[in-house]
Structure formats: structure tokens, C-alpha cells
Amino acid sequence: MKISSLICEYNPFHNGHQYMIDTIRQSNSDIIIACMSGNFTQRGDFAVFDKYSRTQTALENGIDLVIELPVIYSCATAEKFAFGGVYILNSLGCVDDIYFGSECGNMDSLKETADILLSPELSDKIKYHLSLGQTFAKARENAVAEISQNSADILKSPNNILGIEYIKALKKLNSPISPKTIQRIGSEHDSRIATQNFASASLIRQMIYENNTDYFNYIPQKNIPEIHQLSKLETAFLYKLRTMSLQDFSNLPDISEGLENRLYSAVKNSCSIDEILQIVKTKRYTLSRLRRILLHAFLNITRKDCDILPQYIKILGFNQNGKNILRIMRDTATLPVIMRYADVKKLSPTAQYLYSLETRCDDIYSLSSETPSKCGINMTSNLIIL
């Protein structure tokens, strides 16, 4: 039995994701496991649909088992996002390969770039370019160019970057899982232009928020669940930021070089999240980085929280094929498996702490739709079973 996997957000699930799943099936994969972001995404935002709705769609369109990527990894940098997902998939103990999309579609080039990024000589080169005021991504790209221009060109594309981080994580963990790539087709990442029946997730989200039903051309599902938007909680967001001390900001993940001072000052002189972002944004501090930092602040997630390794495997849903994998995991998994809230009581204190953190964050997320939910949805929601 060949067991394949992927790490995803499905925010929302669209035709490009369907193409990827179909391609994996054609490679003779018997089972496909998705490690999917929960209710929070890598761009520092709320997922447009909740994690159980997205799990349902994934299972209806070819995924056999969906497990959750915890919030401390799902709204982190590409490196940490990839490491968290790979760590969890590796802990299943039965996965043969991991698939990811890339712009280049060339595994040899991606592996070569990953090796360069892991090389000891690169660190000093990156530090030099950072000293010139460049963003980390640009500094890394320029440092890599001194070794290989081909690898530097590969680092200009977002899906290539994420794929390389998956490869790096596999190497760091000495994982037996084999990386496989599928060349991206259709619209580019974050493109505002649709191509045939393909559109970027960001364009589809924009259509959904604007109630432009053209998005139905680019997603397989026809019954749309409740829409969640972080903007619905902006006043609460600003309240949280205004009650934070300078030390609170300094304890946030990805804070360095006095950034906490800029954020603290901007919060005191702004009346909206966008205004804060525009005040703090520089060539060095990108909007995506700042959005993640502010989301961590709103959710009360600290740097210390984000240093904790994954502690459990949270199951969100499965079909009959996925049920067979759950049986296999009883003997192969190196982390405890959570299928119901009763399983949480058996976890270590650290694992229980992370689960309570996730629960708290989900309770905040549940307030961002037209009909807010009661607290405890993370403890009371049933698995999605097809």
C-alpha cells in the first residue's frame, strides 16, 4: 500500500487542489493524507471557512484522512509552517511520500537549493545582506545567488520556497518520507486574474467576501458554509493591541531588532489594523510578517509557545480508506492520536497546554461569522466521517 501526503490550507479548496489530488492518484497512491491548517492561515489571517467545513470538502474530493496543523505552525513563517507539517506527517510512521506544488517542477533543482540553504557558509552571507536593510527573503535570495544563480531564481517563487522548506524539514528530521513535486498550472500564486477554470485562492476569497458568485467556477463545492472574516473582530483586535505593554510585544514570535518599539508606537497612533501595518511596514518588515505578528498578539501566542514541537496528531476527518490508516497508525505513530476530547485527558501537560491554546484560539475564531458559536467547539465538534 502506497501512502502519500500533502500539507495544505485549502483556503478555500479549489480546482487547482483538485488537479493536484488527481495527479497524486495517477501516481498509484492508494491513500492520500492531508495535514491541513486549522482555522488560521500562514498569511496571518482567519480561514474563510472553518476547519471542519474544509475537511468535509477535502474528503469529498479525494483526500482520505485529514489531520490538523496546529495554529502555532499554521500562521508561522514558511520554514516553521513546513517543519510543523512535516514533523506531524513523519510522526505517523507510515507515510511514503509528500507531494507539493512548485513553479519549477524540477525536484533536482529544488533539492540542490535546499542543500545550499542548509550549508554553513550561507549564514554569514545572509547576515551581510540583512545589514544592508534587505528583507530576510531578499537577503537569502541574494546570498544564494553568490553560490548558484539558478537556485536564487528558484527562490523568487512562493511555491518553490515552500517546497524547499519541506525538503529541508525532511533532511533535518532524517525522515524516510520521499519529497515529490507537481508543477503548478493555471493562475499564479495570489494572482488577481483567473486562467480558464483555475483561480488563485486569494482571488476566490476576494470574490467570496464580495458575494461575487463567479467563484463557483473555480471551486468544486456548491453549498457554501458560513464565511469567517477577521475584519469582523477589528475593534476587539485593536482593544487587545492597545492593552499590551512594550514587553508583551517583545515576547511575540518573529520580533527582532527593536520591531516591538515600532509596533507599540504604531498601535498608540492608529485607529485601524491597516493603519498600523502601513506605519510599521518597511522594506525590511513585510506585510505578511507583520500580519502574522499581529495575529499572534490578538490570539495571545508568545514566542515561547511557538518553540514547542508538535505534541499530538489531531484527526479532523476520514473516509473508509482513512479508517484503515488509523488502524495502521496504532502501531506506527510516535505521537498520541486525538479523535475525541476524552483522548486529551491522556496527554502530557505540555500537550494539554497546546490543546487548550488551540481551543482558546478557535473560540475567538468562532466569533468572526454572522452567527457566533459558543465556546468549546474544539472539544465538542464531531469528526467528519464519509
Main pleated-sheet profile: 8 strands, mixed
Please, how many domains?
Answer: 2
Give me the secondary-structure category: alpha/beta
CATH class type of the largest domain: Alpha Beta
Summed up, the helix count is: 20
Helix-strand sequence = EHEEEHEHHEHHHHHEHHHHHHHEHEHHHE
- How much strand content do the residues show? 5-15%
- N-to-C CA distance: 21 Å
**Range of helix content:** 40-55%
What's the average pLDDT? 93
CATH architectural group of the largest domain: 3-Layer(aba) Sandwich
Low-confidence stretches: none
Cα Rg = 20 Å
In one word, what is the shape? globular
CATH topology of the largest domain: Rossmann fold
* Number of DSSP strand runs: 10
CATH-defined superfamily of the largest domain: HUPs
